[in-house]
Amino acid sequence: MAKVMVLVGTKKGAFIAESDEARKDWSLRGPFCNTWPIHHVIADPATGAIHGAGGNEWFGPAIWTSKDLGETWTHSSQGLAYEAGKEPVSAAWSVAPRDGELYVGVQPAGLFRSDDGGATWTHIEGLRDHPSRPHWNEGGAGLILHSIVVDPEDSRRIWVGISAAGVFFTEDGGKSWEPRNRGTRADFMPEGQRYPEFGQCVHNIVMAPGMRNRLYQQNHCGMYVSDDGGKSWDSIEAGLPSDFGFPAASHPRDPDTVYLIPLNGAAEGRFVPDAKAAVWRSRDGGRNWEAKRAGLPQRNAFFGVLRQAMAADRREPAGVYFGTSSGTLFASADEGDTWITVAEHLPTVHSVETLVLDR
Amino acid sequence: MATMREAGPATIAVHLPGALVDLFPGSRRHVELKARDVREMVDALNRLWPGMRDRLCDTTPAVRRHINVFVDGERARLDTPLPPGSDVYVLTAISGG
């Protein structure tokens, strides 16, 4: 009997929802991490450890780690720092595991690596040495590195998303980087300057399973797919109710299945459109879309879903999960066809990830 | 004739906030240690409870913006001297929402 865990980062700590493989009945534990704002919680399949990236206004940034599935936690920011005199790191925003290594993205934007399970961190300096660095602009949440995608077959190949600097890529483990934004729009720029080399407001990037060069991107200005590792992006907005949203989630096995949650617009409250919640699923790489609504609120739903707050599990059929700005966690055990409410009245949900333990 | 020596650090009393102590199992709200200025006090706290420096100071380096250190009633910085017998209060500022 498998155990399915949904790891939830919120404005006031981390939570863990648990179920068996049926994913119908859920229990909730938390808050963890001393109710710090936790932007992203992930599990490292190589070690079984859970890591939470966060930052507290009093005490600064830290990565929280639990080696016993959330029972006890430690925290560290040793080495998670720029040189003296530079603007200090204020919070950690994203974590990605890869073969025992951990990568973390921080605010102000930068990338760090840990080779000891999160106890100490080393700055990957090449990214901030990129000549575009002085021209990076802050997004609404600040200048944050919020998305990290590491090639599952070659950890030297890393994509990061920075708001509002865009997508950057390295194939040498972080020594040198190049912007990968061709085809993505920056509607907030003057006419004639809306397809810059960098400066786009990327919101989230994910990799399709089994296709090392297929990426899906939710941007402040549109939804995109790339089949060449981000060298060029094609719009997949046709058929969706808006071009604005935050999260994207890929399927655990099917590279053509992708999930998005479009919101009504950047200046319209950033709610689900028409106050009716839906997860939009494509089965053909973004060409066609279907709104999945069964079990989701269809009236007076004035919430959004933030950039890391949707994920799928690796069960068959795949489970899909998302958490809202109003603190509700929803789950689907049938690839998005039908939904149940797992938890309500949580703090604002920042992130949702999954961990499946086979017994 | 005795050689003149620079005075060593004197003992001071440090009062720590509960939210900080909660982050370091085994730490205490009240501790006496030897330090000549706030920077040495933070170093001494970090030796007692590794990692505490990062929670109190950023890498400017400076006391974090929402942490207040008061020495004998006056708000202090890292280079503020600590006279022998100082009472140092480390407080969390009003913050958050």
Could you list some keywords that capture this structure?
heterodimer; A: 359 residues; mainly beta; Methylamine Dehydrogenase, Chain H; four-stranded antiparallel sheet; 28 strands; globular; B: 97 residues; alpha+beta; Ubiquitin-like (UB roll); five-stranded mixed sheet; two-stranded antiparallel sheet; 3 helices; 7 strands
- Order of strands, main sheet of chain B, comes to 2-1-7-5-6
Low-confidence stretches of chain A: none
State the CATH superfamily name of chain A: YVTN repeat-like/Quinoprotein amine dehydrogenase
Secondary-structure element pattern of chain A, one letter each: EEEEEEEEEEEEEEEEEEEEEEEEEEEE
Number of helices of chain A: 0
Assembly state of the chains shown: heterodimer
Structure description:
- The complex is a heterodimer of chains A (359) and B (97).
- Chain A has one domain (96-350): YVTN repeat-like/Quinoprotein amine dehydrogenase (Methylamine Dehydrogenase, Chain H, 7 Propeller), CATH 2.130.10.10.
- Chain A is an all-beta fold.
- Chain A has strands at 3-10, 13-20, 27-32, 38-43, 50-56, 60-66, 74-76, 91-98, 101-107, 110-114, 122-123, 144-150, 158-163, 166-170, 178-179, 202-207, 215-219, 222-226, 234-235, 244-250, 258-263, 279-282, 290-292, 310-312, 320-323, 329-332, 340-343, 349-357.
- In chain A, the strands form seven sheets. A four-stranded antiparallel beta sheet of chain A has the order 3-2-1-28, with no helix packed on it. A four-stranded antiparallel beta sheet of chain A has the order 4-5-6-7, with no helix packed on it. In chain A, strands 8-9-10-11 form a four-stranded antiparallel beta sheet, with no helix packed on it.
- Helix content of chain A is 0%, strand content 42%.
- Chain B has 97 residues and is α+β, with helices and mostly antiparallel strands.
- Chain B has one domain: Roll (Ubiquitin-like (UB roll)).
- Chain B is built from three helices and seven strands; from the N terminus they run βαβααβββββ.
- Chain B has helices at 18-21, 38-48, 52-56, and strands spanning 11-15, 30-34, 57-58, 62-63, 67-71, 74-75, 87-92.
- Chain B has a five-stranded mixed beta sheet, with helices on one face.
- Chain B is globular.
- The N and C termini of chain B lie far apart (63 Å).
- Chain A binds chain B through residues 34, 57-60, 62, 75-78, 81-86, 88-89, and chain B through 19-20, 22-23, 51, 54-56, 58-61, 64-67, 92-93, 95-96.
